[in-house]
Amino acid sequence: MNWNDLATALFGADHAVRADGVFLSGTGQLDGRTLAVIGSTDHAAIGFDLALRQAQAVLQVVVDAPGRPILLLIDTQGQQLRRHDEMLGIHRAMAHLGQCIDLARRQGHAVLGLVYDQALSGGFITSGLMADACDALPGAEIRVMRLPAMARITRLPEAMLAELSQANPVFAPGVANYVAMGGVRRLWQGDLTEALRLALADLPAADERARDGLARGGRRLADTVIRQVLSA
Amino acid sequence: MSRLSYAECSARERLAALLDAGSFHEWLPPAQRVASPHLAALGVPSAFDDGVAIGRARLGGRPVFVAAQEGAFMGGGVGEVHGAKLVGLLRRAQAAQTAQGSSQGECPEAVLLLLESGGVRLHEANAGLIAVSEVMRALLDLRAAGLPVVVLIGGGAGCFGGMGIVASCADRVVMSDVGRHAMSGPEVIEASHGVEEFDSRDRARVWRTTGGRHRYLCGDCDLLVEDDVAAFRAAALLAIGQGPRPLTLAALQAQQAVLEARSRLAQGADDATALWRRLGVTEAEAVPDLALERLRALRPLHLADDTGA
């Protein structure tokens, strides 16, 4: 879904979300309350500078509008694969973005991620996956890598991976698999504004994803192993 | 005393040599056989510890919680079980820290993470990705509770991908001269953008781009040591003694400014050597060859420890 159509559907045509290149920022109104919107578009590759830009936007909300909810709009092809970004320390910039989102949560900002187009590994891990909860549109695509690439790198037959992925969400791309594993809290169906309202009203206070993964049957071991360690 | 190469040790050898002798008490040890069912389903050999050892121990008499990733097993890749063991360790430290002062016995003074990982384990990639973000959340919870987390990087597989990000979330990072810390490995970048972009066989350039000396000069690594287990032990003790670095708004604003300044300085710089020069490092060309003692004196003061600890 196009970011502008999404913002219009969520906040009406008078929303104040703007794109500057692939970077999204601005505000929208929901039930008389202002939401901060920060994100990316055009399947942006998240490089050192774009991670910093998003981090700065988060810090700005913390400074300027204490308590304002933050909606992270996610559309990324993953991390920027460039030597220059590695030299700069792209891992540090991404960790910094994750730390800024974490700070916002601790300072009382509700932070909600929404994968509205695609989300790949490194571009997603320090934004949507660091929010209080991450939701997705049903048409979104979430993955670390596609099956053919996975088959090549792991040197396993693609047919075997495809077969196993029928029953085990750990192996295959797809937004439904991330829901089953607890990584995505819910898919937005029907009226989008209502879905946003519902999501904001029901944010978990702690990281419940392992428990969700167990309850939904998509990631049965994580929660069990965490408990085993706690009681060992 | 002869030097014991940290890079050449296995995870368990590191634990044995780095921690106080005999003090490591493991949780979910190999005898319990908590392995990855996903690898078994693929017909891939699994490990009874899923590639990571966790537990409590002592370092210089101080109680610590510790994890060590085994780079020789699946490149230290994070799968569902592996990641959950790390999350469990961090949450257990969190619980102990929260219960501090009560009658409960075990309260660590720090958490030590001996990281060696290529990031998410691709065989169970979806679970690994979520797990890494759970590790990040649990680690930042610990920092908010004031318990310092110290990361050691010096294994042959380096510290990449999601675990590279996790490492940068810690209070302090200790690296060896031969350690590498980054996001995407040079092979991945070469495969994606060609050998002109990043020649993964150009070892000197790989080290200038991702190695311990570079990260130290930029301020991303706090303590730089020789490839020696005893040196890592001393540095870990020092780092723990320096205490926590609270992630306040002011601290993150300062970090934002440092990183933005770095990006501006690096514009048009094709190689780390140029960046070092612009950061104010004298003898930038000699950096790869200098003795570490000499190199440590070259780091610009404003990029060193910002807390005055």
From TrEMBL, chain A:
The cross-references to InterPro entries, in alphabetical order and at most eight, read:
ClpP/crotonase-like_dom_sf (IPR029045)
Q: Which domain of life is it from?
A: Bacteria
SUPFAM superfamilies referenced in this protein's UniProt entry, alphabetically = ClpP/crotonase
Q: What is its EC number?
A: 4.1.1.87
Q: What class of enzyme is it?
A: lyase
A single GO molecular-function term is: lyase activity
> Pfam family of this protein, just one?
MdcE
Q: Which of UniProt's keywords are assigned here?
A: Lyase
- Spell out the protein name for this chain: Biotin-independent malonate decarboxylase subunit gamma
Organism this protein belongs to? Sphaerotilus sulfidivorans
TrEMBL record, chain B:
Q: Which InterPro entries match?
A: AcCoA_carboxyl_beta (IPR034733), ClpP/crotonase-like_dom_sf (IPR029045), COA_CT_N (IPR011762), Malonate_beta (IPR017556)
Which keywords accompany this UniProt record? Lyase, Transferase
GO biological processes: carbohydrate metabolic process; fatty acid biosynthetic process; malonyl-CoA biosynthetic process
The segment(s) forming the CoA carboxyltransferase N-terminal domain are: 1-248
Q: Which PROSITE patterns match?
A: COA_CT_NTER
**Pfam families (UniProt xref):** Carboxyl_trans (PF01039)
Q: Which GO terms describe its molecular function?
A: acetyl-CoA carboxylase activity; carboxy-lyase activity; transferase activity
EC number(s) recorded for this UniProt protein: 4.1.1.87
Q: Which NCBIfam families match?
A: malonate_beta, PRK07189.1
What protein is this chain from? Biotin-independent malonate decarboxylase subunit beta
Q: Which organism is it from?
A: Sphaerotilus sulfidivorans
